[in-house]
Design goal:
Number of helices: 0
Number of strands: 7
Strand order of the largest sheet: 4-3-6-7
Radius of gyration: 13 Å
Distance between the termini: 38 Å
Largest sheet: 4 strands, antiparallel
Structural class: mainly beta
Amino acid sequence: MAFTKEELPSIKVLSTKRHILYFKSSREMIGATIEVQNERHQLVATEQVEETKTIIDFFYLPPGAYTVKVKKGEVEVDIEYINE
């Protein structure tokens, strides 16, 4: 896929409260793969983007730093999240 700068698929974090990561993705990112990795880069969970708004619940995961990778084709967006 080729995108101009204005058309690049995007991810916008809406909230990070109460063990929840809530983000909105552009329509082009529907079908993308979400990977959650802990601070040791171990894969904790995977899921697919099914709608433009996504919630990831960290309540049952141990405290620490996590990386959420949203990938589709050549596009990859990383979101850093700290679970306290």
